[in-house]
Design a protein that fits this description.
Elements: E1 9-11, E2 14-16, E3 23-27, H1 35-48, E4 52-56, H2 60-72, E5 77-80, H3 88-91, E6 97-100, H4 114-128, E7 131-137, H5 148-161, E8 167-172, H6 176-189, E9 196-197, H7 207-221, E10 227-229, H8 240-254, E11 267-271, H9 283-294, E12 303-308, H10 314-318, E13 323-327, E14 332-336, E15 339-344, H11 349-363
Parallel strand pairs: 3-4, 3-10, 4-5, 5-6, 6-7, 7-8, 9-10, 11-12, 12-13
Antiparallel strand pairs: 1-2, 13-14, 14-15
Length: about 375
C-alpha cells in the first residue's frame, strides 16, 4: 500500500493517518443499555483486532451507561450522534471519537444554524480530548446539499475555520463505484484529511464482503484511506467477521490482489449492519429470508431490495431501492421506491413483497 499523505490524528490509544497502519473498526450490535453484553462485544472485537469499536447512543439513558462501559472496556470507543447532537456533552467524557452526520444535524433544533451546532461539538471535543468524524451517508444527505462530496468539503472547511484539525471524514454509499468515485474526489481536494472508508449497508456475506472489496481495495491501493469498516449484516456473536473481512482486504491490497469491479446478480440485497438501533431482533433473519425468497428473481435488469433495521436510516436508504423494507418494533414497512405500500407483520411481509414484485413486473 502507498503511504498516507494525510495528517495524523489521535483516537484513544491509537492514531490514524500519516504513516500509521490502516486501522480496522467494527460496531457492537447489542443494546447499549445491556452493559454486560456491550462490554463483552467491545472487548471481543478489540481482541480480534479492532482498533476502534462503535456503540450506538440515542437517549440520555444510553449515554449514562457509557460511564460503566468505559471502565470495563479495553477497546477505544466511538459513538454516533445520529439525530441528537445535544447528547455530545454527556457522551464525550467517556469515548475517544464522536461521529456526526451533516444530514442529521437539522433534525434537532432546526432553527439553529448547523455552524453553531458544529462549533458546540468542537468545543466539547476539545474539552474532553475527543476526535470527531464527519460522516456523510448517501441516504441521509444534508438538505442544503444533494452532493455527498460537497457536503464533506463544506464541513471540513468549517473545521479549518475553527482551527480544529483532529477530525476525519467518511463518505459512504451502498454502491461500491459511488464510494470509489466520491472518496477519490474528496482526497484530490483535501489530501490532508484522513478518510474512514466503508460501504454502508453492504449486506450479508459473502456479497457484502465482495461489495466492500470492490470499493475499498482500489482506494487503499491508491493510498486513500486511513481506517476501514466492513459493515456486514450478521448477528452480534458474529461481528468479528467484519474484522476478518477487513484484514483480508488489507492483505489483498498488500499482495496486489485488487478487486476493482463488482457487478450484482439478478437481485442486489442492500442491508444495514445490525446494531443497537435495530427495532426488532428478527431483523437479521428477515434479511436472510428476503435473500432466499428472491434469489431466483431479477432478469436483464438488477432488482435492488433494501432491508433496513430501524427508522434512523431506513426511510431514506430505502428510497433508492426498487423495493425497501425497514423494520419497526412490531411490523415491517414495505415500500416500492418512495411509495409506502403498508406495514406488515414479520411473518407476512415476505409474501407481500413477492406479490408487489410480481405486480410491478406485470404493470411494466
Amino acid at each position: 500500500m502507498k503511504n498516507q499523505k494525510t495528517r495524523q490524528i489521535q483516537i484513544g490509544t491509537l492514531s490514524i493517518g500519516g504513516r500509521q497502519p490502516v486501522m480496522l473498526q467494527s460496531m457492537a450490535a447489542t443494546k447499549t443499555t445491556d452493559i454486560a453484553a456491550t462490554v463483552e462485544t467491545c472487548n471481543r472485537l478489540a481482541a480480534a483486532g479492532a482498533g476502534l469499536v462503535r456503540v450506538a447512543v440515542d437517549t440520555v439513558k444510553d449515554a449514562e451507561t457509557l460511564v460503566t462501559i468505559r471502565k470495563q472496556c479495553q477497546a477505544n470507543l466511538s459513538v454516533d450522534l445520529q439525530e441528537n447532537y445535544r447528547l455530545a456533552e454527556l457522551i464525550a467524557p467517556h469515548v475517544d471519537k464522536i461521529r456526526y452526520n451533516p444530514g442529521h444535524l437539522h433534525h434537532a433544533e432546526p432553527d439553529i444554524p448547523w455552524q453553531k451546532k458544529v462549533e458546540r461539538l468542537v468545543e466539547i471535543a476539545l474539552t474532553h480530548d475527543c476526535a470527531l468524524r464527519i460522516g456523510v451517508n448517501g441516504g441521509s444527505l444534508d438538505p442544503q446539499s444533494d452532493d455527498a462530496v460537497d457536503s464533506a468539503l463544506t464541513h471540513a472547511a468549517f473545521m479549518d475555520s475553527l482551527g480544529f484539525e483532529r477530525f476525519c471524514v467518511s463518505i459512504k454509499a451502498s454502491d461500491p463505484a459511488t464510494v470509489v468515485s466520491a472518496n477519490r474526489r474528496f482526497a484530490a481536494q483535501r489530501p490532508d484529511v484522513p478518510l474512514h472508508l466503508g460501504v454502508t449497508e453492504a449486506g450479508m456475506p459473502p456479497e457484502g464482503i465482495l461489495k466492500s472489496r470492490a470499493a475499498l481495495e482500489p482506494l487503499l491501493a491508491d493510498g486513500i484511506g486511513a481506517t476501514i469498516r466492513v459493515s456486514l449484516t450478521v448477528p452480534n456473536e458474529r461481528k468479528q467477521e467484519e474484522i476478518e473481512a477487513g484484514r483480508t482486504i488489507l492483505q489483498n491490497v498488500a499482495t496486489g490482489q485488487i478487486l476493482s469491479h463488482w457487478q450484482p446478480g439478478g437481485v442486489n440485497i442492500v442491508s444495514c449492519p445490525s446494531c443497537a438501533r435495530v427495532e426488532n431482533d428478527r431483523f437479521v433473519a428477515l434479511a436472510e429470508r428476503v435473500r432466499e425468497a428472491t434469489r431466483s428473481l431479477g432478469g436483464d435488469k438488477t432488482l435492488t431490495i433494501a432491508v433496513m433495521g430501524c427508522r434512523v436510516n431506513g426511510p431514506g436508504e430505502t428510497d433508492h431501492a426498487d423495493f425497501g423494507l425497514w423494520c419497526g418494533p412490531n411490523a415491517v414497512n414495505l415500500k416500492r421506491g418512495t411509495t409506502v405500500l403498508g406495514a406488515f407483520s414479520y411473518d407476512d411481509v415476505i409474501e407481500r413483497l413477492l406479490r408487489a414484485i410480481s405486480e410491478a413486473k406485470t404493470s411494466s
